[in-house]
Amino acid sequence: MNLLELKPITTQMLKAVVELDGLCFGGLWTFEGYEREIDSTNADLLGLSLPGNPPLLVGMGCLWSIVDEAHITILAVHPRYQSQGFGQFILLALLTSAQRRGLERASLEVRTSNKCAIALYQKFGFKTAGIRKRYYSDTGEDALILWRGGLQDAEFIQNLTSWRQNVRSRIVTTTGYQLKVH
Fold it and tell me: What whole-number distance in Å separates Cα of residue 17 and Cα of residue 22?
């Protein structure tokens, strides 16, 4: 059986985290930056990995809990594993974490050119709230600011359960991977 595990990232996984960051973002955060996320009680840093020695980090996501908001800072899937539902699965895990923390809304920034990511976020109710001009220092590209409210609403909680089941079913059906959440 092929098993994918979603669990909090540990210091033992940081080398793989920094490698995935480099592959997906060109080195957005440092080893020390990710280490701070692990140590922070206001951050959730999750990794999706295939077991092995060492495990293969397929994707990761991070959120910061700021007052009543979940600010999603990272969502990355290894290019070899994109378009299989793994990004959706990680995003839903982050939204579940935010909901369980009692947070009311979620926000994030995304490159205006990243149409696939924008479509992913819109699928789960994120709306454009504004633009950060020249936000990305590597290219000077603008970022869309996306917001999603109502994380404590009964309808959202019901949708979250349904979305998780649908994404899990899609992943199992199309990839053959079973999913384990810690």
Answer: 9
Q: For 155-177, what is each residue's pLDDT tens digit? A: 999 999 999 999 999 999 999 88
Distance of CA 131 to the CA centre of its chain: 21
Alpha-carbon distances, residue 89 vs 31, 45, 74, 173 (angstroms): 24, 14, 14, 14
**Are the CB atoms for 60 and 74 separated by under 8 Å?**
yes
Digit-coded pLDDT (tens) for 56-96: 899 999 999 999 999 999 999 999 999 999 999 999 999 99
CA distance 71 to 147: 9
Structure tokens at 82: 């994109």
Task: Report H helices in 101-153.
Answer: 115-123
Centre a 10 Å sphere on the Cβ of residue 38 and count the other Cβ atoms it contains: 16
- Judged on CB neighbours under 10 Å (0-12, 13-18, 19+), 124 is middle
Catalytic residues: 109, 121
Helices (H), the chain: 14-25, 31-39, 86-100, 115-123, 154-175
